[in-house]
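Researcher: We're teaching a course module on how sequence relates to structure. For the next exercise, students receive a sequence and then see the predicted structure as tokens, so they can try to spot secondary structure elements on their own. Here is the exercise chain.
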Amino acid sequence: MVSLILILSATACERDTSGLLPAPLNTDPVVFRDIDSFASGLDFQAFAGSKIDALSIDTETKFTGGSSLRITVPPTSGGYAGGAFTANSARSFAGYDALTFYAKASKESSLDVVGLGNDNTGNSLYTAERASVPLTTSWTKYIVPIPLPSRLTNERGLMYFAEAAEGDGTEGHTIWFDEVVFENTGLITNPRPILIPQVINAFVGGEVNVTMTQATFAIDGVDQRMSFLPGYYDFFSDDDAVAVSVDGMIVPVGAGTATLTAKLGDVDAVGSVTLNVTAPPTERAPIPDIAAADVISLFSNEYDNVPVDTWSTPWDDANVADIKIDGDDVKVYTEFGFAGIEFLNPTIDATEMTHFHMNVWVEEARVVGVKLVDFGPDNAFGGGDDTEHESLFGLNTDPGIVVGEWFTLDL
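Model: And here is the predicted structure for the students to work with:
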């Protein structure tokens, strides 16, 4: 193996940049005011499983100007309407306190969710939303508070929504949006942040995923509940030997139990979270000795791995994080009910394989199940020719699980 280091240098005609100021932040508040604003630096990305052509421009029905956004909500049999408006380049909304818009519907209905800070990448940190927003057949102004505007200095997620058919679901309906902008309304007061009590299990070096973070705000004197991602909070631990706060995130550093509290800006959140931290194994998992030619590897430092779409599907009941143990990459599952691992693009042809091999470490006695699903000759899930089988392992099975040390399943 040959390693190369390439160093590029410029020794002449250098420009002195010490006096240059950083580029000004883009503070454009407009998401949609007319078709021209929508076409400039904006994109609409329909959510997976939604009606992909639900959005259109309507030049007949509008609140003001020459057009509005028309959302066609399909009947239940057609899915739902939903997606995110994203900016091609990041913007700063630190000078605004809310996303505002005008909306109406073809019938009185309840918009399932509308929010901000979702750039549809799956990596958003500052998503915030209102749920069950009442819509009427008349144009009405709506306000979505920004929980902590100072967080939104580099944001591409502008507005998102989701709405499904209502009533018996046999008929859809239509929603219109207009004058969608970020504003400094001066109407948002009295924030009352909440931490819903919960117990979170984590590993040293893993991630802590606090859920159900929310707050009530007074909007022009009327209370409104908001849900948002924990990135808006600053967290605090009562035991720095167990967990510490780094840049507003909780980092598990030692085995034990800590109580987490939080602030939204300078306002204390009501409630606390119990964090149980487990020290991971100190030794890496057993190293496999099978020849690479006889292996299809999903996750290993010893072989070339095939593509895996996700190690925790949206429909599963688990959180996953990546850590290293003695230099070895490990997937850590917490809040574990069941985990879905998908490799669909492409699927795997395991015809020539004889076993499924996996190293496992568990901190407590429980049943470990492994289910393998084959898509059949049509190579598609749900095509009618799928087969699957699940094997369960406990303390008294053969092979069985071992608590507190690595054990190997060769199925």
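Model: If you want an answer key for the exercise: The mean pLDDT is 88. The CA atoms of residues 92 and 256 lie 39 Å apart.
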